[in-house]
Amino acid sequence: MDSTSASVDSVTRDLKDQSLGSDGPDETRSSNVANSRLQDLNWDHSFVRELPGDPRTDSIPREVLHACYTKVSPSVEVENPQLVAWSESVAQFLDLDPKEFERPDFPLLFSGASPLAGSVPYAQCYGGHQFGMWAGQLGDGRAITLGEILNSKSERWELQLKGAGKTPYSRFADGLAVLRSSIREFLCSEAMHFLGIPTTRALCLVTTGKYVTRDMFYDGNPKEEPGAIVCRVAPSFLRFGSYQIHASRGKEDLGIIRTLADYAIRHHFPHIENMSKSESLSFSTGNEDHSVVDLTSNKYAAWAVEISERTASLVAGWQGVGFTHGVLNTDNMSVLGLTIDYGPFGFLDAFDPSFTPNTTDLPGRRYCFANQPDIGLWNIAQFASTLSAAQLIDDKEANYAMERYGTKFMDEYQAIMTKKLGLPKYNKQLISKLLNNMAVDKVDYTNFFRLLSNVKADPNIPEDELLVPLKAVLLDIGKERKEAWINWVQSYIQELSSSGVSDEERKASMDSVNPKYVLRNYLCQSAIDAAEQGDFGEVRRLLKLMERPYDEQPGMEKYARLPPAWAYRPGVCMLSCSS
Q: Tens of pLDDT along 386-395?
Protein backbone atom coordinates (compact mmCIF):
# COMPACT_ATOMS: atom_id res chain seq x y z
CA MET A 1 0.00 0.00 0.00
CA ASP A 2 2.98 2.32 0.55
CA SER A 3 3.32 3.93 -2.88
CA THR A 4 -0.45 4.21 -3.33
CA SER A 5 -0.87 5.66 0.13
CA ALA A 6 1.83 8.22 -0.57
CA SER A 7 0.10 9.49 -3.72
CA VAL A 8 -3.27 9.76 -2.00
CA ASP A 9 -1.51 11.25 1.01
CA SER A 10 -0.16 14.07 -1.09
CA VAL A 11 -3.73 15.06 -1.89
CA THR A 12 -4.78 14.66 1.71
CA ARG A 13 -2.03 17.07 2.71
CA ASP A 14 -2.55 19.38 -0.24
CA LEU A 15 -6.27 19.10 -0.16
CA LYS A 16 -8.45 19.46 -3.07
CA ASP A 17 -11.79 19.55 -4.60
CA GLN A 18 -14.13 19.67 -7.47
CA SER A 19 -17.40 18.46 -8.76
CA LEU A 20 -18.44 15.79 -11.13
CA GLY A 21 -20.67 18.41 -12.72
CA SER A 22 -23.66 17.33 -14.79
CA ASP A 23 -27.20 17.33 -13.61
CA GLY A 24 -27.06 13.64 -12.87
CA PRO A 25 -28.03 10.74 -15.09
CA ASP A 26 -30.49 11.20 -17.90
CA GLU A 27 -33.93 10.74 -16.46
CA THR A 28 -36.09 11.37 -19.47
CA ARG A 29 -38.57 8.57 -19.89
CA SER A 30 -40.26 7.33 -22.98
CA SER A 31 -43.74 8.81 -23.08
CA ASN A 32 -45.23 5.39 -23.84
CA VAL A 33 -44.07 3.90 -20.52
CA ALA A 34 -47.21 3.21 -18.50
CA ASN A 35 -46.94 4.44 -14.93
CA SER A 36 -47.64 1.72 -12.38
CA ARG A 37 -49.92 1.68 -9.42
CA LEU A 38 -48.44 0.29 -6.22
CA GLN A 39 -50.25 -3.01 -6.57
CA ASP A 40 -48.84 -3.45 -10.08
CA LEU A 41 -45.16 -3.01 -9.27
CA ASN A 42 -42.96 -5.72 -10.80
CA TRP A 43 -41.38 -7.22 -7.69
CA ASP A 44 -38.39 -9.50 -7.76
CA HIS A 45 -36.61 -10.95 -4.74
CA SER A 46 -33.22 -12.09 -5.99
CA PHE A 47 -31.43 -11.38 -2.70
CA VAL A 48 -33.76 -13.61 -0.72
CA ARG A 49 -34.05 -16.19 -3.51
CA GLU A 50 -30.35 -16.65 -4.26
CA LEU A 51 -28.57 -16.14 -0.93
CA PRO A 52 -28.56 -18.05 2.37
CA GLY A 53 -31.00 -16.70 4.95
CA ASP A 54 -31.58 -16.91 8.68
CA PRO A 55 -33.94 -19.80 9.56
CA ARG A 56 -35.47 -17.63 12.29
CA THR A 57 -37.83 -14.74 11.50
CA ASP A 58 -38.13 -13.08 14.92
CA SER A 59 -36.52 -9.74 15.74
CA ILE A 60 -34.84 -10.74 19.01
CA PRO A 61 -31.31 -9.24 18.99
CA ARG A 62 -28.77 -12.00 18.39
CA GLU A 63 -25.78 -13.17 16.37
CA VAL A 64 -27.07 -14.34 12.99
CA LEU A 65 -24.70 -16.99 11.64
CA HIS A 66 -24.22 -18.42 8.13
CA ALA A 67 -26.79 -16.03 6.64
CA CYS A 68 -26.92 -12.86 4.53
CA TYR A 69 -30.31 -11.70 5.83
CA THR A 70 -33.21 -12.31 8.18
CA LYS A 71 -36.82 -12.12 7.03
CA VAL A 72 -38.49 -9.64 9.35
CA SER A 73 -41.56 -7.42 8.97
CA PRO A 74 -41.82 -3.73 9.88
CA SER A 75 -43.14 -3.30 13.42
CA VAL A 76 -43.25 0.48 13.78
CA GLU A 77 -46.31 1.92 15.50
CA VAL A 78 -48.04 4.81 13.77
CA GLU A 79 -50.81 7.25 14.56
CA ASN A 80 -52.14 9.23 11.61
CA PRO A 81 -48.88 9.07 9.61
CA GLN A 82 -48.34 11.86 7.07
CA LEU A 83 -46.47 12.19 3.79
CA VAL A 84 -43.86 14.94 4.22
CA ALA A 85 -42.37 14.92 0.72
CA TRP A 86 -41.60 12.67 -2.24
CA SER A 87 -39.16 12.69 -5.14
CA GLU A 88 -40.69 12.97 -8.60
CA SER A 89 -37.35 11.93 -10.07
CA VAL A 90 -37.27 8.62 -8.14
CA ALA A 91 -40.96 7.93 -8.81
CA GLN A 92 -40.21 8.42 -12.50
CA PHE A 93 -37.52 5.76 -12.78
CA LEU A 94 -39.66 3.37 -10.73
CA ASP A 95 -42.47 4.02 -13.28
CA LEU A 96 -44.68 4.95 -10.33
CA ASP A 97 -47.79 7.00 -11.11
CA PRO A 98 -47.63 10.37 -9.27
CA LYS A 99 -51.30 9.93 -8.32
CA GLU A 100 -50.27 7.04 -6.04
CA PHE A 101 -48.77 9.57 -3.61
CA GLU A 102 -52.27 10.98 -3.09
CA ARG A 103 -53.66 7.64 -1.88
CA PRO A 104 -55.06 7.88 1.66
CA ASP A 105 -53.20 4.68 2.58
CA PHE A 106 -49.84 5.80 1.11
CA PRO A 107 -48.37 6.92 4.48
CA LEU A 108 -49.49 3.61 6.03
CA LEU A 109 -47.79 1.61 3.26
CA PHE A 110 -44.55 3.58 3.33
CA SER A 111 -44.27 3.63 7.10
CA GLY A 112 -44.49 -0.16 7.02
CA ALA A 113 -47.65 -0.12 9.13
CA SER A 114 -49.55 -1.78 6.25
CA PRO A 115 -47.78 -4.43 4.15
CA LEU A 116 -47.08 -3.53 0.52
CA ALA A 117 -48.52 -6.23 -1.75
CA GLY A 118 -45.73 -8.28 -3.32
CA SER A 119 -43.02 -7.30 -0.84
CA VAL A 120 -40.88 -9.83 1.04
CA PRO A 121 -39.29 -7.79 3.85
CA TYR A 122 -35.87 -8.59 5.31
CA ALA A 123 -32.94 -7.03 7.16
CA GLN A 124 -29.40 -7.52 5.86
CA CYS A 125 -26.57 -9.01 7.94
CA TYR A 126 -23.18 -7.26 7.81
CA GLY A 127 -20.27 -6.24 10.00
CA GLY A 128 -17.73 -3.46 9.77
CA HIS A 129 -14.77 -1.50 11.03
CA GLN A 130 -15.97 1.50 13.04
CA PHE A 131 -13.37 4.25 13.52
CA GLY A 132 -10.70 1.75 12.45
CA MET A 133 -11.68 -1.01 14.91
CA TRP A 134 -13.47 -4.23 13.99
CA ALA A 135 -16.97 -4.00 15.52
CA GLY A 136 -18.30 -7.48 14.71
CA GLN A 137 -21.89 -7.99 13.57
CA LEU A 138 -23.80 -4.77 12.86
CA GLY A 139 -26.47 -5.26 10.18
CA ASP A 140 -29.68 -3.40 9.36
CA GLY A 141 -30.66 -2.37 12.87
CA ARG A 142 -33.60 -0.24 11.74
CA ALA A 143 -33.68 -0.54 7.95
CA ILE A 144 -35.99 -3.13 6.44
CA THR A 145 -35.81 -3.89 2.73
CA LEU A 146 -39.20 -4.53 1.11
CA GLY A 147 -37.71 -6.16 -1.98
CA GLU A 148 -36.50 -5.29 -5.45
CA ILE A 149 -38.53 -3.73 -8.25
CA LEU A 150 -37.76 -4.26 -11.94
CA ASN A 151 -38.77 -1.19 -13.94
CA SER A 152 -39.70 -0.96 -17.64
CA LYS A 153 -35.98 -0.85 -18.55
CA SER A 154 -35.35 -4.02 -16.51
CA GLU A 155 -33.35 -1.95 -14.01
CA ARG A 156 -33.30 -3.41 -10.50
CA TRP A 157 -34.18 -1.05 -7.62
CA GLU A 158 -34.28 -2.09 -3.99
CA LEU A 159 -36.80 -0.32 -1.72
CA GLN A 160 -35.88 0.00 1.94
CA LEU A 161 -37.70 1.58 4.89
CA LYS A 162 -35.35 3.21 7.40
CA GLY A 163 -36.83 3.47 10.88
CA ALA A 164 -39.45 0.74 10.46
CA GLY A 165 -38.80 -1.16 13.69
CA LYS A 166 -36.58 -3.70 15.39
CA THR A 167 -34.60 -6.44 13.65
CA PRO A 168 -32.17 -9.05 15.03
CA TYR A 169 -29.45 -6.48 14.27
CA SER A 170 -30.90 -3.68 16.43
CA ARG A 171 -28.75 -4.59 19.45
CA PHE A 172 -29.98 -2.33 22.29
CA ALA A 173 -31.71 0.19 20.01
CA ASP A 174 -35.41 0.62 19.18
CA GLY A 175 -35.18 0.29 15.38
CA LEU A 176 -36.83 3.68 14.91
CA ALA A 177 -35.74 7.00 13.35
CA VAL A 178 -36.58 10.62 14.12
CA LEU A 179 -37.84 13.34 11.79
CA ARG A 180 -34.65 15.38 12.25
CA SER A 181 -32.28 12.74 10.81
CA SER A 182 -34.85 11.49 8.29
CA ILE A 183 -35.24 14.94 6.69
CA ARG A 184 -31.45 15.19 6.41
CA GLU A 185 -31.16 11.78 4.74
CA PHE A 186 -34.09 12.37 2.39
CA LEU A 187 -32.85 15.76 1.20
CA CYS A 188 -29.17 14.88 0.93
CA SER A 189 -29.84 11.67 -1.02
CA GLU A 190 -31.53 13.76 -3.69
CA ALA A 191 -29.19 16.77 -3.45
CA MET A 192 -26.11 14.59 -4.03
CA HIS A 193 -27.68 12.97 -7.08
CA PHE A 194 -28.37 16.31 -8.71
CA LEU A 195 -24.83 17.44 -7.94
CA GLY A 196 -23.74 14.47 -10.08
CA ILE A 197 -22.39 12.38 -7.19
CA PRO A 198 -23.28 8.65 -7.14
CA THR A 199 -25.68 8.04 -4.25
CA THR A 200 -28.53 5.99 -2.88
CA ARG A 201 -31.82 7.79 -3.51
CA ALA A 202 -34.94 8.56 -1.49
CA LEU A 203 -38.49 8.02 -2.76
CA CYS A 204 -40.45 9.54 0.12
CA LEU A 205 -40.50 10.65 3.72
CA VAL A 206 -43.38 10.05 6.13
CA THR A 207 -43.98 10.92 9.77
CA THR A 208 -45.20 8.15 12.07
CA GLY A 209 -47.30 10.40 14.33
CA LYS A 210 -45.49 8.88 17.34
CA TYR A 211 -42.60 10.22 19.41
CA VAL A 212 -39.19 8.63 19.78
CA THR A 213 -36.77 9.20 22.66
CA ARG A 214 -33.26 10.30 21.66
CA ASP A 215 -30.21 11.56 23.55
CA MET A 216 -28.96 13.74 20.70
CA PHE A 217 -25.65 14.75 22.32
CA TYR A 218 -25.06 11.58 24.37
CA ASP A 219 -25.00 13.83 27.46
CA GLY A 220 -27.68 12.14 29.54
CA ASN A 221 -30.45 14.52 28.46
CA PRO A 222 -32.79 12.54 26.22
CA LYS A 223 -35.86 14.18 24.72
CA GLU A 224 -38.93 13.17 22.76
CA GLU A 225 -38.74 13.78 19.01
CA PRO A 226 -41.23 13.12 16.18
CA GLY A 227 -40.69 9.75 14.50
CA ALA A 228 -40.30 9.36 10.73
CA ILE A 229 -39.38 6.89 8.00
CA VAL A 230 -37.47 7.38 4.75
CA CYS A 231 -37.96 5.03 1.82
CA ARG A 232 -34.42 4.63 0.47
CA VAL A 233 -33.84 3.34 -3.05
CA ALA A 234 -30.72 1.85 -4.66
CA PRO A 235 -29.84 -0.95 -7.08
CA SER A 236 -28.38 -2.66 -4.00
CA PHE A 237 -27.49 -1.82 -0.41
CA LEU A 238 -24.56 -4.28 -0.32
CA ARG A 239 -21.63 -2.88 1.67
CA PHE A 240 -17.99 -3.81 2.24
CA GLY A 241 -19.17 -5.10 5.62
CA SER A 242 -21.64 -7.48 3.94
CA TYR A 243 -18.58 -9.52 2.94
CA GLN A 244 -16.37 -8.80 5.96
CA ILE A 245 -18.79 -10.36 8.45
CA HIS A 246 -18.42 -13.80 6.84
CA ALA A 247 -14.62 -13.59 6.69
CA SER A 248 -14.58 -12.74 10.40
CA ARG A 249 -16.36 -16.01 11.19
CA GLY A 250 -13.70 -18.27 9.74
CA LYS A 251 -13.62 -21.19 7.35
CA GLU A 252 -17.21 -22.22 7.76
CA ASP A 253 -18.52 -18.98 6.26
CA LEU A 254 -15.83 -18.23 3.66
CA GLY A 255 -17.98 -19.90 0.97
CA ILE A 256 -20.68 -17.28 1.58
CA ILE A 257 -18.24 -14.58 0.44
CA ARG A 258 -17.91 -16.30 -2.94
CA THR A 259 -21.70 -16.78 -3.18
CA LEU A 260 -22.27 -13.12 -2.35
CA ALA A 261 -19.58 -11.99 -4.81
CA ASP A 262 -21.15 -14.11 -7.55
CA TYR A 263 -24.54 -12.58 -6.72
CA ALA A 264 -23.22 -9.01 -6.96
CA ILE A 265 -21.37 -9.66 -10.22
CA ARG A 266 -24.36 -11.41 -11.79
CA HIS A 267 -26.88 -8.67 -10.99
CA HIS A 268 -24.83 -5.49 -10.70
CA PHE A 269 -21.60 -6.05 -12.67
CA PRO A 270 -22.82 -8.24 -15.58
CA HIS A 271 -20.12 -6.85 -17.90
CA ILE A 272 -17.56 -8.62 -15.70
CA GLU A 273 -19.45 -11.90 -15.95
CA ASN A 274 -19.43 -11.53 -19.75
CA MET A 275 -15.78 -10.53 -20.01
CA SER A 276 -13.77 -12.58 -22.46
CA LYS A 277 -10.05 -13.20 -22.71
CA SER A 278 -10.03 -11.44 -26.05
CA GLU A 279 -10.43 -8.17 -24.17
CA SER A 280 -6.87 -8.63 -22.88
CA LEU A 281 -7.13 -6.79 -19.57
CA SER A 282 -3.56 -7.41 -18.43
CA PHE A 283 -1.70 -4.78 -16.47
CA SER A 284 1.78 -4.33 -15.10
CA THR A 285 1.80 -3.62 -11.39
CA GLY A 286 3.78 -0.77 -9.95
CA ASN A 287 5.94 -3.21 -8.00
CA GLU A 288 9.66 -3.56 -8.58
CA ASP A 289 9.23 -6.98 -10.19
CA HIS A 290 6.81 -5.47 -12.78
CA SER A 291 4.57 -8.51 -12.34
CA VAL A 292 1.45 -8.76 -14.48
CA VAL A 293 -2.16 -8.94 -13.29
CA ASP A 294 -4.54 -10.50 -15.83
CA LEU A 295 -8.07 -9.39 -14.95
CA THR A 296 -9.64 -11.60 -17.62
CA SER A 297 -8.45 -14.76 -15.91
CA ASN A 298 -10.11 -13.92 -12.57
CA LYS A 299 -13.46 -12.17 -12.51
CA TYR A 300 -13.13 -11.49 -8.77
CA ALA A 301 -9.93 -9.51 -9.37
CA ALA A 302 -11.66 -7.50 -12.11
CA TRP A 303 -14.56 -6.91 -9.71
CA ALA A 304 -12.27 -5.78 -6.88
CA VAL A 305 -10.51 -3.34 -9.22
CA GLU A 306 -13.82 -1.89 -10.41
CA ILE A 307 -15.07 -1.41 -6.84
CA SER A 308 -11.76 0.24 -6.00
CA GLU A 309 -12.00 2.62 -8.95
CA ARG A 310 -15.66 3.43 -8.30
CA THR A 311 -14.80 4.25 -4.69
CA ALA A 312 -11.90 6.47 -5.74
CA SER A 313 -14.11 8.31 -8.22
CA LEU A 314 -16.79 8.76 -5.55
CA VAL A 315 -14.39 10.25 -3.01
CA ALA A 316 -12.94 12.59 -5.65
CA GLY A 317 -16.51 13.79 -6.29
CA TRP A 318 -17.02 14.44 -2.59
CA GLN A 319 -13.81 16.47 -2.40
CA GLY A 320 -14.99 18.46 -5.41
CA VAL A 321 -18.24 19.67 -3.87
CA GLY A 322 -16.84 19.97 -0.34
CA PHE A 323 -18.87 17.08 1.10
CA THR A 324 -17.76 15.37 4.31
CA HIS A 325 -19.52 12.06 5.00
CA GLY A 326 -18.65 11.98 8.69
CA VAL A 327 -18.85 8.20 9.33
CA LEU A 328 -16.75 6.34 6.76
CA ASN A 329 -16.87 3.00 8.53
CA THR A 330 -16.60 -0.05 6.25
CA ASP A 331 -20.28 -0.86 6.86
CA ASN A 332 -21.07 2.55 5.31
CA MET A 333 -19.17 1.80 2.07
CA SER A 334 -21.25 0.66 -0.91
CA VAL A 335 -19.81 -2.00 -3.26
CA LEU A 336 -21.53 -0.06 -6.07
CA GLY A 337 -19.52 3.09 -5.30
CA LEU A 338 -22.56 5.02 -4.01
CA THR A 339 -22.73 7.52 -1.16
CA ILE A 340 -24.67 5.57 1.46
CA ASP A 341 -25.95 6.21 5.00
CA TYR A 342 -26.41 9.92 5.57
CA GLY A 343 -25.82 10.57 9.26
CA PRO A 344 -23.76 13.49 10.62
CA PHE A 345 -22.65 14.68 7.16
CA GLY A 346 -21.76 18.25 6.29
CA PHE A 347 -20.81 20.42 3.32
CA LEU A 348 -17.89 22.78 3.92
CA ASP A 349 -18.80 26.35 4.75
CA ALA A 350 -15.53 28.13 5.57
CA PHE A 351 -12.75 26.07 3.98
CA ASP A 352 -11.18 23.94 6.71
CA PRO A 353 -9.38 20.73 5.69
CA SER A 354 -9.74 19.37 9.25
CA PHE A 355 -13.55 19.88 9.30
CA THR A 356 -15.55 16.96 10.63
CA PRO A 357 -19.32 17.26 11.10
CA ASN A 358 -19.40 14.31 13.51
CA THR A 359 -19.02 15.06 17.25
CA THR A 360 -17.96 11.43 17.83
CA ASP A 361 -15.06 11.98 15.41
CA LEU A 362 -13.71 15.08 17.17
CA PRO A 363 -10.91 13.53 19.24
CA GLY A 364 -8.95 12.15 16.28
CA ARG A 365 -10.78 13.64 13.28
CA ARG A 366 -10.28 10.34 11.48
CA TYR A 367 -13.10 11.15 9.07
CA CYS A 368 -12.38 14.84 8.50
CA PHE A 369 -12.60 16.32 5.00
CA ALA A 370 -8.86 16.08 4.26
CA ASN A 371 -8.66 12.43 5.34
CA GLN A 372 -11.44 11.07 3.13
CA PRO A 373 -9.15 10.01 0.24
CA ASP A 374 -6.90 8.05 2.63
CA ILE A 375 -9.84 6.49 4.47
CA GLY A 376 -11.30 5.34 1.14
CA LEU A 377 -8.04 3.50 0.47
CA TRP A 378 -7.93 2.03 3.99
CA ASN A 379 -11.46 0.71 3.53
CA ILE A 380 -10.58 -0.77 0.13
CA ALA A 381 -7.64 -2.55 1.81
CA GLN A 382 -10.04 -4.14 4.33
CA PHE A 383 -12.37 -5.23 1.51
CA ALA A 384 -9.49 -6.69 -0.53
CA SER A 385 -8.30 -8.53 2.56
CA THR A 386 -11.75 -10.13 2.87
CA LEU A 387 -11.67 -11.35 -0.75
CA SER A 388 -8.15 -12.68 -0.16
CA ALA A 389 -9.30 -14.57 2.94
CA ALA A 390 -11.91 -16.32 0.77
CA GLN A 391 -9.18 -17.06 -1.80
CA LEU A 392 -11.04 -15.10 -4.48
CA ILE A 393 -7.99 -12.92 -5.20
CA ASP A 394 -4.31 -13.29 -4.42
CA ASP A 395 -2.00 -10.75 -2.79
CA LYS A 396 -0.80 -9.42 -6.13
CA GLU A 397 -4.39 -8.78 -7.27
CA ALA A 398 -5.30 -7.20 -3.91
CA ASN A 399 -2.31 -4.85 -4.15
CA TYR A 400 -3.21 -3.98 -7.72
CA ALA A 401 -6.77 -3.03 -6.68
CA MET A 402 -5.29 -0.64 -4.10
CA GLU A 403 -2.83 0.72 -6.63
CA ARG A 404 -5.72 1.44 -9.00
CA TYR A 405 -7.51 3.35 -6.23
CA GLY A 406 -4.58 5.76 -5.95
CA THR A 407 -4.25 6.24 -9.69
CA LYS A 408 -7.98 6.68 -10.27
CA PHE A 409 -8.38 9.11 -7.40
CA MET A 410 -5.53 11.31 -8.59
CA ASP A 411 -6.80 11.30 -12.19
CA GLU A 412 -10.36 12.19 -11.17
CA TYR A 413 -9.37 14.69 -8.53
CA GLN A 414 -7.01 16.56 -10.82
CA ALA A 415 -9.58 16.64 -13.63
CA ILE A 416 -12.21 17.93 -11.21
CA MET A 417 -10.03 20.70 -9.80
CA THR A 418 -8.90 21.73 -13.28
CA LYS A 419 -12.56 22.14 -14.31
CA LYS A 420 -13.43 23.96 -11.07
CA LEU A 421 -10.87 26.62 -11.86
CA GLY A 422 -11.54 26.65 -15.62
CA LEU A 423 -7.87 25.92 -16.30
CA PRO A 424 -6.53 24.66 -19.64
CA LYS A 425 -4.51 22.02 -17.73
CA TYR A 426 -3.85 20.90 -14.15
CA ASN A 427 -1.57 23.24 -12.22
CA LYS A 428 -0.65 21.76 -8.84
CA GLN A 429 1.19 24.84 -7.55
CA LEU A 430 -1.65 27.23 -8.40
CA ILE A 431 -4.31 24.98 -6.85
CA SER A 432 -2.28 24.26 -3.70
CA LYS A 433 -1.67 27.96 -3.14
CA LEU A 434 -5.36 28.69 -3.62
CA LEU A 435 -6.44 26.09 -1.06
CA ASN A 436 -3.84 27.35 1.37
CA ASN A 437 -5.14 30.92 0.99
CA MET A 438 -8.73 29.72 1.44
CA ALA A 439 -7.82 27.85 4.64
CA VAL A 440 -5.90 30.82 6.11
CA ASP A 441 -8.79 33.23 5.49
CA LYS A 442 -11.60 30.74 6.14
CA VAL A 443 -13.15 31.46 2.75
CA ASP A 444 -16.55 29.96 1.97
CA TYR A 445 -15.87 26.95 -0.25
CA THR A 446 -19.01 26.84 -2.40
CA ASN A 447 -19.42 30.59 -2.89
CA PHE A 448 -15.74 31.17 -3.71
CA PHE A 449 -15.68 28.74 -6.63
CA ARG A 450 -19.01 30.03 -7.90
CA LEU A 451 -17.71 33.62 -7.93
CA LEU A 452 -14.36 32.66 -9.42
CA SER A 453 -15.98 32.30 -12.85
CA ASN A 454 -16.50 36.08 -12.87
CA VAL A 455 -12.75 36.77 -13.02
CA LYS A 456 -11.79 37.99 -16.51
CA ALA A 457 -8.70 36.62 -18.27
CA ASP A 458 -7.35 40.13 -18.82
CA PRO A 459 -3.72 40.73 -17.68
CA ASN A 460 -4.31 44.49 -17.88
CA ILE A 461 -6.85 44.75 -15.05
CA PRO A 462 -5.56 47.33 -12.53
CA GLU A 463 -4.27 45.77 -9.31
CA ASP A 464 -6.85 47.54 -7.14
CA GLU A 465 -9.66 45.98 -9.20
CA LEU A 466 -8.40 42.38 -9.27
CA LEU A 467 -10.33 41.26 -6.19
CA VAL A 468 -13.62 42.98 -7.07
CA PRO A 469 -15.28 39.78 -8.43
CA LEU A 470 -14.36 37.98 -5.17
CA LYS A 471 -15.15 40.72 -2.64
CA ALA A 472 -18.27 38.94 -1.35
CA VAL A 473 -16.15 36.01 -0.10
CA LEU A 474 -12.88 37.73 0.84
CA LEU A 475 -14.17 39.28 4.04
CA ASP A 476 -12.18 41.14 6.68
CA ILE A 477 -8.76 40.48 5.18
CA GLY A 478 -5.88 42.77 6.11
CA LYS A 479 -3.29 44.34 3.84
CA GLU A 480 -0.88 41.41 3.95
CA ARG A 481 -3.55 38.86 3.08
CA LYS A 482 -4.93 41.15 0.38
CA GLU A 483 -1.52 41.12 -1.28
CA ALA A 484 -1.40 37.31 -1.12
CA TRP A 485 -4.76 37.14 -2.88
CA ILE A 486 -3.76 39.72 -5.51
CA ASN A 487 -0.64 37.67 -6.27
CA TRP A 488 -2.71 34.53 -6.63
CA VAL A 489 -5.30 36.16 -8.92
CA GLN A 490 -2.49 37.53 -11.12
CA SER A 491 -1.00 34.03 -11.49
CA TYR A 492 -4.48 32.66 -12.17
CA ILE A 493 -5.22 35.24 -14.90
CA GLN A 494 -1.86 34.50 -16.50
CA GLU A 495 -2.75 30.80 -16.64
CA LEU A 496 -6.22 31.52 -18.04
CA SER A 497 -4.99 33.88 -20.76
CA SER A 498 -2.93 31.08 -22.30
CA SER A 499 -6.05 28.96 -22.93
CA GLY A 500 -7.68 30.97 -25.72
CA VAL A 501 -11.13 30.30 -24.20
CA SER A 502 -13.48 33.31 -24.00
CA ASP A 503 -14.56 34.60 -20.59
CA GLU A 504 -18.20 33.76 -21.41
CA GLU A 505 -17.42 30.20 -22.43
CA ARG A 506 -15.21 29.60 -19.40
CA LYS A 507 -17.85 31.01 -17.02
CA ALA A 508 -20.54 28.70 -18.44
CA SER A 509 -18.19 25.73 -18.09
CA MET A 510 -17.15 26.61 -14.53
CA ASP A 511 -20.72 27.29 -13.41
CA SER A 512 -21.68 23.81 -14.63
CA VAL A 513 -19.30 22.20 -12.11
CA ASN A 514 -19.33 24.75 -9.26
CA PRO A 515 -22.78 24.64 -7.62
CA LYS A 516 -24.50 27.79 -6.45
CA TYR A 517 -26.54 25.82 -3.93
CA VAL A 518 -25.49 22.97 -1.64
CA LEU A 519 -27.40 21.44 1.26
CA ARG A 520 -25.71 23.36 4.06
CA ASN A 521 -26.52 22.06 7.53
CA TYR A 522 -28.25 25.28 8.57
CA LEU A 523 -30.65 24.97 5.60
CA CYS A 524 -31.53 21.46 6.78
CA GLN A 525 -32.05 22.75 10.29
CA SER A 526 -34.47 25.48 9.16
CA ALA A 527 -36.53 22.83 7.37
CA ILE A 528 -36.37 20.53 10.41
CA ASP A 529 -37.52 23.28 12.80
CA ALA A 530 -40.55 24.04 10.62
CA ALA A 531 -41.39 20.36 10.03
CA GLU A 532 -41.32 19.60 13.75
CA GLN A 533 -44.08 22.21 14.05
CA GLY A 534 -46.08 20.49 11.28
CA ASP A 535 -45.01 22.75 8.37
CA PHE A 536 -43.44 20.65 5.60
CA GLY A 537 -43.22 23.51 3.08
CA GLU A 538 -39.53 24.23 3.63
CA VAL A 539 -38.57 20.57 3.13
CA ARG A 540 -40.36 20.63 -0.22
CA ARG A 541 -38.79 23.98 -1.23
CA LEU A 542 -35.31 22.70 -0.43
CA LEU A 543 -35.95 19.55 -2.45
CA LYS A 544 -36.92 21.62 -5.50
CA LEU A 545 -33.96 23.97 -5.02
CA MET A 546 -31.45 21.11 -4.77
CA GLU A 547 -32.73 19.55 -7.99
CA ARG A 548 -31.01 22.41 -9.90
CA PRO A 549 -27.87 23.23 -7.88
CA TYR A 550 -25.89 24.63 -10.83
CA ASP A 551 -28.65 27.04 -11.98
CA GLU A 552 -28.90 30.64 -10.74
CA GLN A 553 -32.60 30.22 -9.79
CA PRO A 554 -33.43 33.96 -9.44
CA GLY A 555 -35.29 34.75 -6.24
CA MET A 556 -33.64 31.90 -4.32
CA GLU A 557 -30.36 33.70 -3.56
CA LYS A 558 -30.92 33.64 0.19
CA TYR A 559 -30.27 29.89 0.10
CA ALA A 560 -26.70 30.56 -1.07
CA ARG A 561 -25.93 32.86 1.86
CA LEU A 562 -23.21 32.21 4.42
CA PRO A 563 -24.44 30.46 7.56
CA PRO A 564 -26.00 32.81 10.15
CA ALA A 565 -24.53 32.98 13.67
CA TRP A 566 -27.08 30.50 15.05
CA ALA A 567 -25.83 27.86 12.60
CA TYR A 568 -22.70 27.34 14.72
CA ARG A 569 -24.58 26.01 17.72
CA PRO A 570 -24.21 22.28 18.54
CA GLY A 571 -26.66 20.12 16.63
CA VAL A 572 -26.53 22.29 13.50
CA CYS A 573 -22.96 22.59 12.22
CA MET A 574 -21.93 19.43 14.06
CA LEU A 575 -24.04 16.39 14.82
CA SER A 576 -23.79 13.08 16.58
CA CYS A 577 -24.70 9.68 15.15
CA SER A 578 -27.89 9.77 17.26
CA SER A 579 -30.85 9.58 14.93
A: 999 999 999 9
